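Today's session is about reading a structure prediction critically. Students often jump straight to the picture, but the first step is always the sequence itself: look for stretches that repeat, for charged clusters, for runs of hydrophobic residues. Only then move on to the predicted structure, which in these notes is written as discrete structure tokens rather than atom positions. Here is the chain we will use throughout the hour.
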Amino acid sequence: MSGTDPQAGLTAAIIPARGGSKGVPRKNLRRVGGVPLIERAVRAATLAEGVDLVVVTTDDPEIAAAARGAGARIVERPPELAGDTASSEGALLHALDVLEADGIRVDTVVFVQATSPFIPSTAIAEAADGVRSGRYDSAFSAVATYGFLWRADAGGLAHGINHDPSHRPRRQDREPHHLETGAFYVFGADGFRRAGHRFFGRIGIVEVPESSAIEIDDEEQLTLAGLLAAATSEGAPIPASALVTDFDGVHTDDTATVDSEGRESVRVSRDDGMGVARLRRAGIPMLILSTEQNPVVARRAEKLRVPVLHGVDDKAAALAAWAEEHGIPLADIAYVGNDVNDLGALGIVGWPVAVANAHPAVKAASRVVLTRRGGDGAVREVIERILAASNHAHGSEAD
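Below is the predicted structure for this chain, in token form.
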């Protein structure tokens, strides 16, 4: 879009994401399930039906690059709107002014916060439709709660807020209250300009699942979000167009036996061999990448009929070079690792994957955590999930 092509009536998702953060340094770029928070927010907004434009307003070039890579339009936020005391409302108004100056008229604003990693796109769509249709002037995401709320007075004594402590009705006999999640807010642009705030007029509540309500304000919440991301990824298809794996701890159980002549042998899974054969027949490229300069790696790769790069010190550089040579975007590659020397490679691909018994740092950096351990069918599991995504895509095209 540009000033020469003015558009009216747009629904724009605007995501404020400044570079500074005290509680969690570089928070908007931290990964949950192997995906930076800013990218997760852009994806959620992009997938929401009825959202015409996704904008990230930021003062940080690295955040801008990540958001742009995910498909967002970037608005450069001035320093006076990016400090610790700056308001989100100020950043939103500035973004609207920039868009309007470029000939883009926004009627409905979807204010998305990247600190919420599990935003349901369907709920964004529901809220936006509610505002566009005139049911609400503004709306927000919330979870229903039937909890008994209390407050403590100056003396530390407890008082009921939403209930009479002497009367404890059953859950089914109580009216729910709603807790704001902070994930998203939707409102008319003109009404927002007049009010200068996200809540005005007829305010609607859009309920979201409690599992989606986590908001990242500290390292503990970031860790919990990573665990939740791993749990929800179980069994899901992996739409990768190429597979690259480590060897030790992925194809093997990370142990070795040594005979009296110093020859090593390792334990692998026949199940993995069948999976590799299926992947090869499907025409999906695969590479084994290992730091070990060991004949057993080459022999196993030869048996699987898979190319191998071993004795590699910098896995990320080797992976990037292989991808460029074969014309495969890094975003389309699944890399499976198990230990800290895999973190570099995991950080540059679109589908970082950890085996079930991987190092905690590897699990935290991964978008998918497998249910199988290295040497016990982990390679077969990731291949089946890649093939499931490939089969689904081909079926959709056939329709």
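Discussion point for the tutorial: The chain has twelve helices and 19 strands.
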